[in-house]
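Milestone 3.1: sequence recovery, worked example.
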């Protein structure tokens, strides 16, 4: 059997580190590089720089067995020692929502410079989410200019979008629904297909081979579809609230049984956040507009999502009137459970709005408190347990659907709060049970 290709990963955020550890845990030799020296020190010590289930054990094992090394800002060394390079750097939004490619450009320059000195065939793989045309029109020209070599002949170029979900990254990378390989040339596409066939052997997922631009668009279309489902069900939730006796949870459960619709991403709540959906929907809108097409549906998806978190504030005001000096308990800060990521978390506009109204806020999250401190500093207080957060509160809002919040009983709220008023922003409680003992309001529940 041919030797396993050696892999470099540039950028060890969620995607880069999970990709690197995934390969290293299966015996591939992986060299990573990242400009963030703090992140690299932690990784070298076997400590993931973010919360992700199963990652600590797998990272430690990969490092101890010598399959994973991590360097500070040494793209050249990482590329030089390997056969395939993954680009996994961030692709944030610019002010106008369009994609900011500065990290992609910087890393392409570094890779190109190294390819100039490197002998042998090398494949560069874009794993970051980039708008259609980026790999062909931005990455390829930079690689060619810096390497003085020709793409497709002297080195290969592929686009391989990532579909992992934070909080279940390993389950997703070891068992993906599909692998998409966009390739500039046949040879590099074949090399990456071989890599994945070996990696997933014997349970190889469906592999889709396509052009670079189609691969890029598959990622955006997938995220835009999921965001659309969320804004759609939130729209139905908002309609339900105007219909006595209606409940969006029951509506969604029945809809989800329809095979054409499916049950996933039909959870009404306070909207989507995180590092991907908001920025990817914005980037797709900007890209589409730049191409001359007005994507009205996506504009509405965004608009609904922008307004949805403020429903929590509306509910609090309906219950308490003037919020000046009122104690509000916030349960959940992370953008979703099982992560400490607060990028675009829905709690941010909620807390900012409550503070504007003069409310006094105490928040609790099982893992995201230190992240929250860097955002809100001492403008809010932080509790070290859910019960501690509820003490003397005039109203509690569930913002993130952590498992431990689901275990809170109506009595936990009644005993600890000054006024037992509960707003279920994620529909984790049974309305019949909780409204018996509490003043209970929930997204998508008819009055
Ligand atoms: N987070 C997710 O769930 C997810 C899922 C699928 C796709 N993606 C996409 O993958 C890409 C990376 O996302 P992420 O969440 O891992 O980002 P991240 O911000 O967590 O990590 C990116 C890393 O790249 C590093 N970096 C930036 N410039 C660099 C350079 N020139 N050289 C070396 N390192 C550099 C940063 O220091 C950072 O550690 C983005 O395009 C994102 O849209 C993310």
């Amino acid at each position: 059997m041919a030797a396993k290709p050696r892999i470099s990963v540039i950028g060890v955020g969620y995607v880069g580190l999970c990709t690197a550890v995934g390969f290293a845990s299966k015996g591939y030799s992986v060299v990573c590089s990242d400009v963030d020296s703090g992140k690299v020190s932690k990784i070298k010590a076997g400590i993931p720089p973010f919360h992700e289930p199963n990652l600590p054990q797998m990272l430690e094992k990969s490092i101890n067995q010598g399959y994973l090394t991590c360097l500070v800002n040494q793209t050249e060394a990482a590329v030089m020692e390997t056969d395939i390079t993954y680009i996994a750097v961030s692709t944030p939004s610019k002010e106008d929502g369009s994609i900011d490619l500065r990290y992609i450009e910087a890393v392409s320059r570094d890779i190109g410079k190294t390819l100039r000195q490197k002998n042998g065939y090398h494949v560069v793989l874009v794993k970051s989410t980039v708008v259609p045309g980026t790999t062909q029109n931005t990455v390829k020209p930079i690689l060619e200019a810096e390497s003085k070599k020709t793409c497709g002949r002297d080195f290969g170029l592929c686009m391989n979008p990532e579909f992992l979900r934070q909080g279940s990254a390993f389950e997703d990378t070891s068992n993906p629904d599909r692998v998409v390989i966009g390739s500039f040339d046949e040879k590099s596409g074949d090399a990456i297909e071989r890599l994945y066939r070996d990696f997933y052997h014997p349970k190889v997922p469906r592999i889709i081979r396509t052009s670079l631009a189609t691969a890029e668009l598959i990622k955006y279309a997938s995220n835009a579809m999921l965001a659309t489902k969320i804004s759609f069900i939130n729209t139905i939730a908002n309609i339900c609230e105007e219909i006595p006796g209606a409940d969006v949870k029951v509506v969604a459960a029945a809809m989800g049984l329809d095979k054409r619709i499916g049950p996933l991403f039909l959870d009404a709540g306070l909207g989507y956040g995180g590092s991907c959906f908001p920025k990817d929907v914005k980037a797709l809108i900007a890209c589409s507009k730049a191409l001359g097409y007005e994507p009205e549906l996506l504009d509405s998806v965004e608009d609904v999502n922008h307004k949805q978190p403020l429903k929590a504030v509306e509910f609090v005001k309906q219950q308490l009137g003037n919020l000046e000096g009122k104690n509000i308990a916030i349960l959940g800060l992370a953008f979703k459970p099982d992560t400490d990521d607060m990028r675009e978390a829905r709690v941010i506009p909620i807390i900012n709005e409550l503070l504007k109204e003069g409310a006094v806020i105490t928040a609790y999250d099982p893992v995201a408190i230190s992240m929250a401190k860097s955002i809100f500093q001492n403008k809010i207080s932080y509790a070290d347990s859910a019960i501690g957060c509820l003490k003397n509160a005039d109203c509690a809002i569930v913002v993130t659907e952590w498992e431990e919040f689901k275990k809170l009983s109506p009595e936990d709220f009644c005993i600890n709060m000054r006024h037992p008023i509960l707003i279920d922003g994620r529909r984790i409680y049974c309305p019949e049970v909780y409204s018996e003992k509490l003043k209970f309001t929930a997204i998508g529940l008819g009055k």
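The chain has two domains: 7-210, 242-442. The mean pLDDT is 97.
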